[in-house]
Amino acid sequence: MYDLIIIGGGPAGAAAGVYAARKKLNTLLITEEFGGQSKVSEDIQNWIGTTSISGIELAKNLKQHVEEYAGDALEIKELDKVTSVKKDGEGFSVSTENGDEYKTKTVLAAAGSHRRKLPVPGAEEFDNKGLTYCASCDGPLFAGKDVVVVGGGNAGFETAAQLLAYTKSVTLLHRSAKFRATPITVEKILAYEKMKAITEVEILEVKGDKMVNAIVYKDKEGNDVELPTSGIFVEIGQIPTTGFIKDAVETNEYNQIVIDPWTQKTSTPGIWAAGDSTNIRYHQNNIAVGDAVKAVEDIYVTLRTS
Ligand SMILES: Cc1cc2nc3c(=O)[nH]c(=O)nc-3n(C[C@H](O)[C@H](O)[C@H](O)COP(=O)(O)OP(=O)(O)OC[C@H]3O[C@@H](n4cnc5c(N)ncnc54)[C@H](O)[C@@H]3O)c2cc1C
């Protein structure tokens, strides 16, 4: 039986892996992959201690750091996915997509969050056929084209900023009157001549032939508008990755794991959680790391005093 199973290899899971191994907790870290969400970012400028780093490079560093500790105390299972966490006697049983089952005294859930998909007809059909959730991955394919960004938060404006570098025009569609992105970013991006934003729209449909050729929305006057476009970049938020554990711990109305921010404990003794899958107010790489470290400190004390 393991002392600890860490689920996730983003900033939170990686930090937990390093700390748990250094404390010689008999640990298993299970992750689909290392790096987490900001892996798609071209330039991360607030990873403390590094003025600028690409998401890919950050992912490589996190993986390398964890692997440095693999061995006696720490075992790593990459390319697998946890499907359930269940109470099992004094501990827990953790099952994975590969059909494995592991027993552990404690669990740290650090599976972060994933992109919210556009819930309209055509969105699934044209996913990766002109509709994409990753500007830094697919943006260059749309050089010289008219594209649309859906979403008026920081991610939407960050995507627009990237696309402005090589597309013919960028139209940002946002469902409410006010943008969620920081005012300074909004002002800077909207100042570009080839940038346009339309607010108070409801997206109705994605259209195309083999590839996307239009997006249909209802404007604020209630008219259906068909806007021709070659590419649609969707940035409408994140969904916490908690399905595999929601029967074992308390979650809130957003499906985030409810934690005690003092210790990272969940409502279930023996399960801790850290990072973007929790109900903390701010979601950032540095915060995910700090909270995961806090969790491992608390797990260590709990195991050693029980
Ligand atoms: C485009 C973008 C840019 C960003 N830029 C910045 C930035 O510049 N600075 C900043 O501080 N923050 C940034 N963020 C936010 C930051 O990425 C997150 O706050 C951070 O990644 C959260 O870390 P985490 O470890 O909690 O979760 P995640 O990064 O989501 O990592 C979760 C990990 O769990 C794994 N996983 C998921 N489900 C399972 C499962 N069932 N079983 C096993 N493994 C699983 C995933 O593969 C992944 O490795 C950005 C986010 C996005 C989307």
Task: Describe the secondary structure blueprint for this structure.
Elements lengths: L1 E6 L3 H12 L4 E5 L23 H14 L5 E5 L3 E7 L2 E6 L4 E9 L3 E3 L15 E2 L2 H4 L7 E5 L3 H11 L4 E5 L9 H8 L4 E4 L3 E7 L3 E7 L5 E5 L2 E4 L3 E3 L30 E3 L11 H21 L1
Parallel strand pairs: 1-2, 1-6, 2-3, 6-17, 8-15, 9-10, 9-15, 10-11
Antiparallel strand pairs: 4-5, 5-6, 7-16, 12-13, 13-14
Provide a quick synopsis of the model.
This protein is of the alpha/beta class and about 300 residues long.
Structural notes for this entry:
The two termini are 16 Å apart. The protein has six helices and 17 strands. Helix 5 links the parallel strand 10 and strand 11. The protein has 306 residues and is α/β, with parallel strands linked by helices. Helix 1 (11-22) packs parallel to helix 2 (55-68). The site of flavin-adenine dinucleotide has 35 residues, from helix 1, strand 2 and helix 6.
